[in-house]
Specification:
- This protein is about 75% helix and about 0% strand.
- The chain is an all-alpha fold.
- The chain has one domain.
- Helix 5 packs parallel to helix 9.
- The radius of gyration is 21 Å and the shape is elongated.
- It starts with a helix and ends with a helix.
- The N terminus is likely disordered.
Amino acid sequence: MTTENRFGGAFASREGSGFAGIPQGRQFAGLYAREVLKTFRNPFVLVITVVQPFMWLAFFGSSFSNVPLSYLDVLLHAHIQSYLQFLLPGVLSTSMLSIGMFGSMSTIQDKRFGFMKRILITPTSKATVYLAKALGSATRGLVQVPVMIAAALLFGVQFGGDPLMWAGWLLCLVLLGFGFSCMFLAVTASSTDWQTPGVISNFITMPLMFASGALFPTANFPGWMQTIAAYNPVTYSALFGRGIILSGTANWLYLGYVAVFATVMVTIGTVVASRYLKVE
């Protein structure tokens, strides 16, 4: 009896409606917990995740330390104490933009070392695997938030806003990271090449980072960059956090825009992963 004859019925039942009613909650919880534990079990990845945005804050932010505040107020179209105060929300937003690359690399690692093949022959759906990966990447990005806030306090940055606004800002960062993780994972769903996530990340991350309000006001951009920034969710995440820090106000429409972005990305990504996620 051939392998196909012996197991053909089993695989047919998996593809058919026999597994359609199996709840995916426990599989999702287990896979998500694995993603989180992987982050904390790898000190190198954890350190890089934290240090990279800190270096942006320390080096890029400090590059304007000798510029008179009156000039910065004109340049940034805002009354600030230091450029670091203006930069912090942007750095956190761009960090959540790039965090999806690590989820893509983790997925390819799972494919190359056989974990993905083992999990996909179980009743766990491709969509469950995909969503657990995406949420795990977004959670990894949140490790940066308290570290960056503490670093900003050490640099003398003062914050405004109330707990509700800060909770909304944290949610905004989660949605931004989740949305971009979904996007990166969808693009690399069918790939097993180690180089693919890095190439795609560089192609997507740099234009979205600079064509946003994360580092400088969009009013200083040429028209074509302003058009990109107007549709760039990084812009709205940075503006949402910047309003809280600079003036203690929150424009909740910005949070809504990021929520729509995350919803669209998770919908498209789930469809793509369900069809194209493969191990080889």
